[in-house]
Amino acid sequence: MADIGALEHLLKPVQALTPDVSIDEVARRFLLDEHRAFLSLPVVDAVQRPCGLISRYRLQDIFMRRFGRELWGTQPVSKVMNPAPLVLQLGTPFETAAAQVTTRLQYPVTEDFILVDGAGRYRGLGTVPHLLKAMEARLLQRNQALQHTLEDLKQSQAQLVQSEKMASLGQMVAGIAHELNTPLGYVGNNVDLLRELSAPLFALNEALAHLSAYLGDPATDEEALAHALEAADAARRAVDAGTLAEDFRQLLEDTDYGLRQISELVGGLKDFSRLDRAPSDDVDLNDCVRAALLIARNNLKGRVEVRQQLQALPPLRCAPSQINQVLLNLLNNAAQAMDGSGIILIKSWADEAQVHLSVEDNGKGMTPEVLERIFDPFFTTKPVGEGTGLGLSISYRIVRDHGGTIRVASRPGRGTRFLITLPLRRAADAAEAGAAPAAPLQREIEHA
Amino acid sequence: MPDTQRPVRLMFVDDESRILRSLALQFRKDYEVLTESDPHLALHRLEQEPIDILVSDQRMPAMNGAELLARARALQPQGIRILLTGYSDVDAAIQALNDGEIFRYLTKPWNPREMDDTIARAAELSLRQRAARAAPAGAAAGADIPHGIAILLLDGDPLVEARVLELCAVDGHHLHRARQVDEAIAILNREHVDIVISDLRLGEHATAPLLKSLAQVRPHALTIVTTPYQDTQALLALINQAQIFRYVLKPVSVKLFERALHAAVTQSRHWRARPQAVVARAAEAPRDEGERAAVNGLVGMLGRLRGRFGAPV
User: Rounded distance, CA A143 to CA A139, Å?
Assistant: First the structure.
């Protein structure tokens, strides 16, 4: 910052008085045009060091007394000047100078301040209005800088939220893609097998067509007919009708099943992202749980057992895609909290005013130090580059934006439980929802 | 039925019964096919009867495929093991390779023709192994097998180098080192090499094409790959096309690396002692045309090895 020399801009080179100048002469000087802008005039000694300041205000005081001018007019200014005026070095940083001026400021403002060089020699005067103007300009500049910083921060926050969204979306898509591989595997193989198995049927059909043509033709000779009959018989023997029918039935049934599963997965993806739905909707939170489970299955399959205790819930007005994001985040966190296999228990229930959902795992749990920070943005226990540290902080914000609360209890080595409470009616009873009792949480975990 | 005349026996293990039905239907006409949806029951069968080829899914409740394959290897080391999975999971692939010594890493959905080819190749190796086991022991006597084997090091990592140097000093193995791929080719053309320890980068070049061509020309050479990369697709290609023996992530854990080295030395000695034994290794050609050309080029450059050690199928 250009603080050094900033005071130079305030410097007004005013000719200084000497201590022996008469008060009459001072009054004359004040009337000069070049001094109109000043409240005071400086007094310097023989070596140009400031030794005082005389203000218009002081002169006014003297001259307004009875015979003031007559009594004091010929006296030297040193008798009436302020012997200890505010003196600032030109090299003083602007902020320090401003602080000194404003602490000495008196009302009404009657004096200017003296500016000296590094050696303490008089250089000129500075006025308070000028200083205030300069301070205002600086504040404005700083405000603009802060505004820019704020905008930058807002933008990078939006980018981070977006990248977290993209990361979970990518994970979701990869998960579903992998899930699709199993049904695609056997459906593709079955179609190939059906093609192979049906080949003898076409051969049989052709042989029968030949035979039929011979039979219908009176000119057919015995030998050709016998030949065709033989060929048809061979083709029929190549087709083991019993086995073939059973194979066909099974292959088609499995293929149907696989196709249904594929469309279920794709449908789940659509349900989860709600790309073709209104941003806010009346939904059954249990459906959100099921959609998130379908998406998280890739992370859970084979090692995590999911137990669901979902009670019937009243419809909840919310942004389902956001709630799904929260649920997926909790499920993935729970899965990651388990080194080997484990259990995730999901419970939902409702009361008059709220819907509750708890996600509980028997994973490695968290220490109180970690627990305290889990909702902080950028806090992560994962190695650098593996997590944005935004998952739970975004979840927290989403739940809060829905007027709900998200609470957590955890014990190292035992597991973690998240409890989400969402109000059925927003705003009106948000305060009441916030005051819902949460006391039994810790104990429930202990008994888990 | 005598062991040599028994048809090749395949076992598929997958928790999705539709996968099992489909595969059984595909292979029942050429092989004896068993299926299990529970890995524990599969292990039980492996304890009871020889299974020539085991194909397992990775993600199953109760036990994952890599673990099943590792336990199957302990029960029947001569069997051929294949992982068939719909998930790309690098840890599972590394475990299946290092502990299960898998012959292939296949992905779902699979191409039926390629699956046919893979199983046919595995079956053929299995039958040849069986025939070799039944044949009377060859002339090679234990006495003239040199104790030390030859190692080619294509990795400048100080930790890896230190372990290898120590092993060579203690056990009297012969160590070759190369800093560039062409230097490595020159050594491979000049010397007999039992074990290749290689990073995936050597100097300016990737070593994967060299390792892939080596697998085609010299299936007896065991490759230990040391790399900081965890890329499932690259690993999959190394398993299928370079038939690598072990995959050790960098920074290497001394314990894991030494275990890999020890296993390779044991295997090499075993093969040296039984020249008639069939090596259950058969590399797949790279899919990418450019890479296939590069590998073929290297195979040509390594051509002289063919003459020296006899071309394996």
Answer: 6
